[in-house]
Amino acid sequence: MDSRHLSLMDFMNKGEQNIVDLADRFNEFEQDMFARRHVNYRRVSLTGSAPVMRVIDPYDGFEREMIYFASNDYLNLTRHPRTIEAGRKALEKYGTGAGSVPLLGGTLDIHIELEQKVAKFKGCEAALIFSSGFGSNAGAIAALLGEEGIPICDTLVHASILDGCIGKTVKFFRHNDMESLEKTLKRLEDRKVTKLVMVDGVYSMDGDIAKLDEICEIAHRYGALVYVDEAHSTGVIGDTGRGTPEYYHLEGKVDIVAGTCSKALGVVGGFIASSQKIIQYLYYYARSYMFSTAPTPQAVASISEALDVILEEPQLREKLWQNIRYFKKGLEDLHVDLGDAETAIFPIIISDDYKVKEMCRELHENNIYVNPVVYPAVPKRLARLRFSLMQGHEKEHLDKALNIMEYLLKKYEVKQK
Protein backbone atom coordinates (compact mmCIF):
# COMPACT_ATOMS: atom_id res chain seq x y z
CA MET A 1 0.00 0.00 0.00
CA ASP A 2 1.32 3.43 -0.98
CA SER A 3 0.39 5.87 1.79
CA ARG A 4 1.40 8.89 -0.30
CA HIS A 5 -1.89 8.73 -2.18
CA LEU A 6 -4.13 8.06 0.82
CA SER A 7 -5.34 9.90 3.92
CA LEU A 8 -7.11 9.11 7.18
CA MET A 9 -10.36 9.89 5.40
CA ASP A 10 -9.94 6.73 3.31
CA PHE A 11 -10.20 4.59 6.44
CA MET A 12 -13.12 6.28 8.18
CA ASN A 13 -15.70 3.77 9.39
CA LYS A 14 -18.71 4.62 7.22
CA GLY A 15 -20.46 1.31 7.82
CA GLU A 16 -19.47 -0.02 4.41
CA GLN A 17 -17.29 -2.83 5.74
CA ASN A 18 -16.50 -4.78 8.88
CA ILE A 19 -14.38 -2.81 11.35
CA VAL A 20 -11.90 -5.69 11.66
CA ASP A 21 -11.24 -5.62 7.90
CA LEU A 22 -11.02 -1.84 7.97
CA ALA A 23 -8.51 -1.96 10.84
CA ASP A 24 -6.40 -4.46 8.87
CA ARG A 25 -6.26 -2.09 5.90
CA PHE A 26 -5.48 0.85 8.14
CA ASN A 27 -2.62 -1.12 9.68
CA GLU A 28 -1.10 -1.57 6.21
CA PHE A 29 -1.48 2.16 5.61
CA GLU A 30 0.24 3.06 8.88
CA GLN A 31 3.05 0.57 8.27
CA ASP A 32 3.81 2.24 4.95
CA MET A 33 3.63 5.65 6.66
CA PHE A 34 6.07 4.39 9.29
CA ALA A 35 8.48 3.09 6.65
CA ARG A 36 8.54 6.58 5.14
CA ARG A 37 9.03 8.09 8.63
CA HIS A 38 5.78 9.99 8.33
CA VAL A 39 4.24 8.77 11.61
CA ASN A 40 5.01 11.76 13.78
CA TYR A 41 2.29 11.01 16.30
CA ARG A 42 2.43 9.61 19.85
CA ARG A 43 6.15 10.32 20.17
CA VAL A 44 6.94 9.32 23.73
CA SER A 45 8.41 11.92 26.10
CA LEU A 46 10.62 10.84 28.98
CA THR A 47 10.59 14.21 30.74
CA GLY A 48 7.14 15.76 30.32
CA SER A 49 6.17 19.08 28.81
CA ALA A 50 9.08 21.53 28.61
CA PRO A 51 10.72 23.77 25.98
CA VAL A 52 13.38 21.06 25.54
CA MET A 53 12.55 17.45 26.34
CA ARG A 54 13.91 13.96 25.87
CA VAL A 55 11.93 11.81 23.46
CA ILE A 56 12.17 8.17 22.42
CA ASP A 57 12.72 8.18 18.67
CA PRO A 58 10.00 5.88 17.26
CA TYR A 59 12.24 4.79 14.40
CA ASP A 60 15.43 3.70 16.14
CA GLY A 61 14.39 3.51 19.81
CA PHE A 62 17.14 5.88 20.96
CA GLU A 63 16.64 9.03 23.01
CA ARG A 64 16.58 12.43 21.35
CA GLU A 65 16.76 15.84 23.00
CA MET A 66 14.24 17.91 21.08
CA ILE A 67 13.03 21.50 21.08
CA TYR A 68 9.33 21.10 21.74
CA PHE A 69 6.98 23.17 19.56
CA ALA A 70 3.90 20.96 19.90
CA SER A 71 2.68 21.82 23.39
CA ASN A 72 -0.27 23.88 24.60
CA ASP A 73 1.59 24.48 27.88
CA TYR A 74 2.02 28.14 26.95
CA LEU A 75 3.17 29.40 30.37
CA ASN A 76 5.02 26.20 31.37
CA LEU A 77 2.77 25.80 34.40
CA THR A 78 2.92 22.00 34.16
CA ARG A 79 6.31 22.27 35.88
CA HIS A 80 5.88 25.41 37.95
CA PRO A 81 6.98 24.84 41.57
CA ARG A 82 3.76 26.36 42.92
CA THR A 83 1.39 24.17 40.88
CA ILE A 84 3.44 21.06 41.69
CA GLU A 85 3.46 21.80 45.42
CA ALA A 86 -0.26 22.60 45.52
CA GLY A 87 -1.04 19.30 43.82
CA ARG A 88 1.25 17.38 46.16
CA LYS A 89 -0.44 18.80 49.26
CA ALA A 90 -3.92 18.00 47.92
CA LEU A 91 -2.84 14.46 47.07
CA GLU A 92 -1.65 13.90 50.63
CA LYS A 93 -4.77 15.47 52.16
CA TYR A 94 -7.54 13.99 49.96
CA GLY A 95 -5.98 10.94 48.30
CA THR A 96 -5.76 10.09 44.62
CA GLY A 97 -9.41 10.55 43.62
CA ALA A 98 -12.74 12.11 44.51
CA GLY A 99 -14.44 8.72 44.84
CA SER A 100 -17.74 9.52 43.15
CA VAL A 101 -19.50 11.68 40.60
CA PRO A 102 -19.85 15.27 41.85
CA LEU A 103 -23.64 15.35 42.12
CA LEU A 104 -23.84 12.27 44.34
CA GLY A 105 -20.81 12.10 46.60
CA GLY A 106 -17.67 13.30 44.87
CA THR A 107 -17.81 17.03 45.62
CA LEU A 108 -14.94 18.20 47.82
CA ASP A 109 -14.53 21.60 49.40
CA ILE A 110 -11.70 22.36 46.97
CA HIS A 111 -14.05 21.71 44.03
CA ILE A 112 -16.35 24.45 45.31
CA GLU A 113 -13.41 26.78 45.95
CA LEU A 114 -12.13 26.26 42.40
CA GLU A 115 -15.55 26.85 40.87
CA GLN A 116 -15.82 30.15 42.74
CA LYS A 117 -12.33 31.14 41.64
CA VAL A 118 -13.03 30.27 37.98
CA ALA A 119 -16.26 32.30 38.04
CA LYS A 120 -14.43 35.33 39.42
CA PHE A 121 -11.54 34.86 36.97
CA LYS A 122 -13.97 34.83 34.04
CA GLY A 123 -16.25 37.59 35.33
CA CYS A 124 -19.29 35.33 35.67
CA GLU A 125 -21.74 34.60 38.49
CA ALA A 126 -20.92 30.91 38.80
CA ALA A 127 -18.93 28.08 37.29
CA LEU A 128 -18.88 24.31 37.03
CA ILE A 129 -15.75 22.16 36.66
CA PHE A 130 -15.49 18.94 34.66
CA SER A 131 -12.91 16.19 34.47
CA SER A 132 -12.01 17.14 30.86
CA GLY A 133 -12.30 20.12 28.57
CA PHE A 134 -13.75 17.94 25.82
CA GLY A 135 -16.38 16.66 28.23
CA SER A 136 -17.31 20.13 29.43
CA ASN A 137 -18.08 21.27 25.89
CA ALA A 138 -19.80 18.10 24.72
CA GLY A 139 -21.94 17.76 27.87
CA ALA A 140 -22.85 21.40 28.43
CA ILE A 141 -23.76 22.13 24.82
CA ALA A 142 -26.02 19.08 24.53
CA ALA A 143 -27.79 20.14 27.73
CA LEU A 144 -28.16 23.77 26.69
CA LEU A 145 -29.56 22.90 23.27
CA GLY A 146 -31.98 20.25 24.49
CA GLU A 147 -34.20 18.69 21.82
CA GLU A 148 -35.11 21.79 19.82
CA GLY A 149 -32.19 24.19 20.23
CA ILE A 150 -30.27 25.41 17.20
CA PRO A 151 -26.45 25.35 17.19
CA ILE A 152 -24.85 28.14 15.15
CA CYS A 153 -21.12 27.50 14.75
CA ASP A 154 -18.13 29.15 13.22
CA THR A 155 -16.81 26.71 10.62
CA LEU A 156 -13.56 26.25 12.57
CA VAL A 157 -14.89 25.49 16.07
CA HIS A 158 -13.27 22.67 18.03
CA ALA A 159 -14.41 19.06 17.58
CA SER A 160 -15.71 18.94 21.17
CA ILE A 161 -18.22 21.68 20.33
CA LEU A 162 -19.39 19.72 17.31
CA ASP A 163 -19.75 16.59 19.44
CA GLY A 164 -22.07 18.56 21.71
CA CYS A 165 -24.21 19.17 18.62
CA ILE A 166 -24.58 15.51 17.61
CA GLY A 167 -28.15 14.85 16.53
CA LYS A 168 -28.66 18.51 15.56
CA THR A 169 -28.51 20.22 12.21
CA VAL A 170 -25.68 22.67 12.75
CA LYS A 171 -25.97 26.06 11.09
CA PHE A 172 -22.46 27.16 10.13
CA PHE A 173 -21.24 30.66 9.38
CA ARG A 174 -17.99 31.44 7.59
CA HIS A 175 -14.97 31.77 9.85
CA ASN A 176 -14.91 35.11 11.66
CA ASP A 177 -17.27 36.52 9.01
CA MET A 178 -19.81 38.79 10.66
CA GLU A 179 -21.91 39.24 7.54
CA SER A 180 -22.26 35.47 7.27
CA LEU A 181 -23.21 35.24 10.96
CA GLU A 182 -25.88 37.91 10.63
CA LYS A 183 -27.38 36.30 7.54
CA THR A 184 -27.54 32.97 9.38
CA LEU A 185 -29.26 34.52 12.40
CA LYS A 186 -31.67 36.50 10.25
CA ARG A 187 -32.89 33.29 8.62
CA LEU A 188 -33.59 31.91 12.10
CA GLU A 189 -35.14 35.07 13.52
CA ASP A 190 -38.66 33.64 13.81
CA ARG A 191 -37.59 30.43 15.56
CA LYS A 192 -38.55 30.81 19.24
CA VAL A 193 -36.09 28.24 20.59
CA THR A 194 -32.62 28.34 22.12
CA LYS A 195 -30.18 29.67 19.55
CA LEU A 196 -26.57 29.19 20.57
CA VAL A 197 -23.78 30.96 18.67
CA MET A 198 -20.53 29.08 19.35
CA VAL A 199 -16.97 30.20 18.69
CA ASP A 200 -13.44 29.57 19.91
CA GLY A 201 -11.79 32.51 21.64
CA VAL A 202 -8.52 31.59 19.93
CA TYR A 203 -8.70 29.04 17.13
CA SER A 204 -6.50 26.02 17.76
CA MET A 205 -5.32 25.40 14.20
CA ASP A 206 -5.06 29.01 13.04
CA GLY A 207 -4.07 31.02 16.11
CA ASP A 208 -6.45 33.90 15.31
CA ILE A 209 -8.86 35.55 17.75
CA ALA A 210 -12.65 35.50 17.46
CA LYS A 211 -14.32 38.86 16.85
CA LEU A 212 -16.17 38.41 20.11
CA ASP A 213 -17.32 42.02 20.46
CA GLU A 214 -19.07 41.96 17.08
CA ILE A 215 -20.33 38.42 17.63
CA CYS A 216 -22.01 39.36 20.92
CA GLU A 217 -23.62 42.46 19.45
CA ILE A 218 -25.05 40.62 16.45
CA ALA A 219 -26.11 37.49 18.36
CA HIS A 220 -27.86 39.39 21.15
CA ARG A 221 -29.64 41.61 18.63
CA TYR A 222 -31.21 38.47 17.16
CA GLY A 223 -32.02 36.88 20.52
CA ALA A 224 -29.23 34.30 20.45
CA LEU A 225 -26.87 33.31 23.26
CA VAL A 226 -23.09 33.40 22.83
CA TYR A 227 -20.87 30.49 23.86
CA VAL A 228 -17.09 31.00 23.70
CA ASP A 229 -14.53 28.23 24.19
CA GLU A 230 -11.52 29.74 25.97
CA ALA A 231 -9.19 26.73 25.60
CA HIS A 232 -6.35 28.61 23.88
CA SER A 233 -7.24 32.07 25.26
CA THR A 234 -7.04 31.61 29.02
CA GLY A 235 -3.67 32.75 30.33
CA VAL A 236 -2.60 34.05 26.91
CA ILE A 237 -4.72 37.07 25.93
CA GLY A 238 -6.37 39.87 27.87
CA ASP A 239 -4.70 42.51 30.04
CA THR A 240 -4.26 40.03 32.91
CA GLY A 241 -4.54 36.78 30.97
CA ARG A 242 -8.22 36.21 31.70
CA GLY A 243 -9.00 35.48 28.07
CA THR A 244 -11.15 36.73 25.20
CA PRO A 245 -13.91 38.50 27.18
CA GLU A 246 -11.23 40.53 28.98
CA TYR A 247 -9.43 41.16 25.68
CA TYR A 248 -12.61 42.83 24.36
CA HIS A 249 -13.71 44.31 27.74
CA LEU A 250 -16.79 42.08 27.69
CA GLU A 251 -16.48 40.39 31.08
CA GLY A 252 -19.91 39.48 32.39
CA LYS A 253 -21.51 40.11 28.99
CA VAL A 254 -20.82 36.74 27.33
CA ASP A 255 -23.59 34.25 28.08
CA ILE A 256 -21.50 31.09 28.47
CA VAL A 257 -17.70 30.99 28.85
CA ALA A 258 -16.20 27.52 28.48
CA GLY A 259 -12.63 26.34 28.69
CA THR A 260 -10.12 23.67 29.45
CA CYS A 261 -7.53 23.47 32.20
CA SER A 262 -5.07 21.55 30.02
CA LYS A 263 -3.53 24.40 28.02
CA ALA A 264 -2.00 27.46 29.72
CA LEU A 265 -3.27 26.24 33.11
CA GLY A 266 -1.05 23.21 32.69
CA VAL A 267 -3.24 20.49 34.23
CA VAL A 268 -6.37 18.73 32.92
CA GLY A 269 -10.10 19.31 33.20
CA GLY A 270 -12.68 21.76 31.93
CA PHE A 271 -15.08 24.44 33.09
CA ILE A 272 -18.27 26.26 32.20
CA ALA A 273 -18.88 29.75 33.60
CA SER A 274 -22.20 31.54 33.26
CA SER A 275 -25.14 32.80 35.30
CA GLN A 276 -25.97 31.05 38.56
CA LYS A 277 -29.21 29.67 37.08
CA ILE A 278 -27.55 28.23 33.97
CA ILE A 279 -24.87 26.56 36.07
CA GLN A 280 -27.45 25.11 38.44
CA TYR A 281 -29.32 23.71 35.45
CA LEU A 282 -26.14 22.04 34.17
CA TYR A 283 -25.65 20.26 37.51
CA TYR A 284 -28.53 18.00 36.53
CA TYR A 285 -28.52 17.97 32.73
CA ALA A 286 -24.87 17.96 31.58
CA ARG A 287 -24.32 14.22 31.26
CA SER A 288 -20.53 14.47 31.20
CA TYR A 289 -20.74 16.15 34.62
CA MET A 290 -23.51 13.97 36.01
CA PHE A 291 -21.91 10.66 35.03
CA SER A 292 -18.17 11.33 35.35
CA THR A 293 -16.20 11.05 38.57
CA ALA A 294 -15.25 14.48 39.87
CA PRO A 295 -11.79 15.85 38.98
CA THR A 296 -8.93 14.53 41.11
CA PRO A 297 -7.86 16.57 44.16
CA GLN A 298 -4.35 17.02 42.78
CA ALA A 299 -5.67 18.42 39.49
CA VAL A 300 -8.10 20.76 41.25
CA ALA A 301 -5.45 22.17 43.58
CA SER A 302 -2.94 22.64 40.77
CA ILE A 303 -5.52 24.39 38.59
CA SER A 304 -6.43 26.70 41.44
CA GLU A 305 -2.79 27.60 42.00
CA ALA A 306 -2.27 28.10 38.26
CA LEU A 307 -5.01 30.76 38.22
CA ASP A 308 -3.17 32.57 41.01
CA VAL A 309 0.16 32.29 39.18
CA ILE A 310 -1.34 33.83 36.03
CA LEU A 311 -2.44 36.88 38.00
CA GLU A 312 0.59 37.14 40.28
CA GLU A 313 3.38 36.40 37.79
CA PRO A 314 2.55 38.44 34.68
CA GLN A 315 6.17 38.16 33.58
CA LEU A 316 5.39 34.65 32.31
CA ARG A 317 2.80 35.96 29.87
CA GLU A 318 5.06 38.90 28.96
CA LYS A 319 7.87 36.47 28.07
CA LEU A 320 5.46 34.39 25.99
CA TRP A 321 4.50 37.49 24.02
CA GLN A 322 8.13 38.43 23.51
CA ASN A 323 8.60 35.01 21.95
CA ILE A 324 5.45 35.37 19.85
CA ARG A 325 6.55 38.71 18.42
CA TYR A 326 10.11 37.51 17.73
CA PHE A 327 9.06 34.25 16.05
CA LYS A 328 6.34 35.90 13.98
CA LYS A 329 8.80 38.50 12.69
CA GLY A 330 11.23 35.70 11.80
CA LEU A 331 8.57 33.79 9.89
CA GLU A 332 7.34 36.91 8.14
CA ASP A 333 10.91 37.55 6.99
CA LEU A 334 10.78 34.08 5.38
CA HIS A 335 7.55 35.12 3.61
CA VAL A 336 5.59 32.11 4.81
CA ASP A 337 1.80 32.01 4.82
CA LEU A 338 0.65 32.25 8.46
CA GLY A 339 -2.99 32.94 7.71
CA ASP A 340 -4.32 35.35 10.35
CA ALA A 341 -2.24 33.98 13.25
CA GLU A 342 -2.17 36.40 16.18
CA THR A 343 -1.23 34.36 19.24
CA ALA A 344 1.09 31.53 20.31
CA ILE A 345 -0.09 29.17 17.54
CA PHE A 346 1.66 29.47 14.17
CA PRO A 347 0.21 27.57 11.19
CA ILE A 348 2.87 27.50 8.47
CA ILE A 349 0.69 26.74 5.48
CA ILE A 350 2.48 24.52 2.94
CA SER A 351 -0.59 23.52 0.86
CA ASP A 352 0.71 20.01 0.10
CA ASP A 353 0.16 17.01 2.37
CA TYR A 354 3.24 15.13 1.19
CA LYS A 355 5.53 18.11 1.57
CA VAL A 356 4.21 18.64 5.11
CA LYS A 357 5.01 15.03 6.01
CA GLU A 358 8.48 15.20 4.50
CA MET A 359 9.26 18.51 6.17
CA CYS A 360 8.04 17.19 9.50
CA ARG A 361 10.31 14.15 9.05
CA GLU A 362 13.31 16.41 8.48
CA LEU A 363 12.38 18.65 11.41
CA HIS A 364 12.28 15.55 13.61
CA GLU A 365 15.70 14.48 12.35
CA ASN A 366 16.98 17.93 13.30
CA ASN A 367 15.47 17.61 16.80
CA ILE A 368 12.59 20.03 16.21
CA TYR A 369 9.33 18.56 17.54
CA VAL A 370 6.45 19.93 15.44
CA ASN A 371 3.03 18.60 14.51
CA PRO A 372 1.96 17.97 10.89
CA VAL A 373 -1.63 18.97 10.15
CA VAL A 374 -2.93 17.39 6.95
CA TYR A 375 -6.20 16.35 5.31
CA PRO A 376 -8.84 15.70 6.62
CA ALA A 377 -7.92 17.77 9.71
CA VAL A 378 -7.68 20.70 7.28
CA PRO A 379 -8.44 21.00 3.55
CA LYS A 380 -5.57 19.79 1.35
CA ARG A 381 -4.90 23.33 0.13
CA LEU A 382 -4.33 24.35 3.77
CA ALA A 383 -1.99 21.52 4.86
CA ARG A 384 0.45 22.93 7.39
CA LEU A 385 3.09 22.61 10.05
CA ARG A 386 1.80 23.82 13.41
CA PHE A 387 4.25 25.47 15.79
CA SER A 388 3.17 26.35 19.34
CA LEU A 389 5.32 28.58 21.52
CA MET A 390 5.93 28.55 25.27
CA GLN A 391 7.25 31.26 27.51
CA GLY A 392 10.21 29.02 28.34
CA HIS A 393 11.52 28.95 24.78
CA GLU A 394 14.75 30.89 24.50
CA LYS A 395 15.95 32.92 21.53
CA GLU A 396 18.37 30.16 20.46
CA HIS A 397 15.47 27.68 20.30
CA LEU A 398 13.46 29.99 18.07
CA ASP A 399 16.48 30.79 15.89
CA LYS A 400 17.26 27.12 15.32
CA ALA A 401 13.68 26.46 14.21
CA LEU A 402 13.71 29.50 11.91
CA ASN A 403 17.02 28.50 10.33
CA ILE A 404 15.85 24.95 9.61
CA MET A 405 12.54 26.23 8.25
CA GLU A 406 14.39 28.59 5.90
CA TYR A 407 16.34 25.62 4.53
CA LEU A 408 13.26 23.39 4.19
CA LEU A 409 11.11 26.06 2.54
CA LYS A 410 13.75 26.38 -0.18
CA LYS A 411 14.37 22.64 -0.50
CA TYR A 412 10.68 21.83 -0.96
CA GLU A 413 10.02 24.91 -3.07
CA VAL A 414 7.20 26.13 -0.89
CA LYS A 415 5.43 29.05 -2.52
CA GLN A 416 6.26 32.24 -0.68
CA LYS A 417 3.59 34.70 0.35
Whole-number count of domains: 2
Number of strands: 14
- CATH fold name of the largest domain: Aspartate Aminotransferase, domain 2
Strand order of the biggest β-sheet:
4-10-9-8-7-5-6
Give the amount of beta strand, in percent: 5-15%
Summarize the structure.
The protein has 417 residues and is α/β, with parallel strands linked by helices. The protein is built from 15 helices and 14 strands.
Which secondary structure elements does this structure contain, and how are they paired or packed?
Layout: H1 19-35, E1 44-45, E2 52-56, E3 63-68, H2 81-94, H3 102-106, H4 109-121, E4 126-130, H5 133-145, E5 150-154, H6 159-164, E6 171-173, H7 178-187, E7 195-200, H8 212-221, E8 225-229, H9 244-247, E9 256-260, E10 270-274, H10 276-285, H11 287-290, H12 297-312, H13 314-333, E11 345-349, H14 353-365, E12 368-369, E13 371-373, E14 384-388, H15 395-411
Parallel strand pairs: 3-12, 5-6, 5-7, 7-8, 8-9
Antiparallel strand pairs: 1-2, 2-3, 4-10, 9-10, 11-14, 13-14
Helix pairs in contact: 2-12, 4-12, 7-8, 13-15
Descriptive report:
By secondary structure, this protein is α/β, with parallel strands linked by helices. The protein folds into 2 domains: 14-75 and 314-411, Aspartate Aminotransferase, domain 1 (Alpha-Beta Complex); 80-312, Aspartate Aminotransferase, domain 2. It contains 15 helices and 14 strands. A 7-stranded mixed β-sheet has the order 4-10-9-8-7-5-6, with helices on both faces. The protein has a 4-stranded mixed β-sheet with strand order 1-2-3-12, covered by helices on one side. A 3-stranded antiparallel β-sheet has the order 11-14-13, covered by helices on one side. Helix 6 (159-164) links the parallel strand 5 (150-154) and strand 6 (171-173). The model has no long low-confidence stretch (mean pLDDT 96).
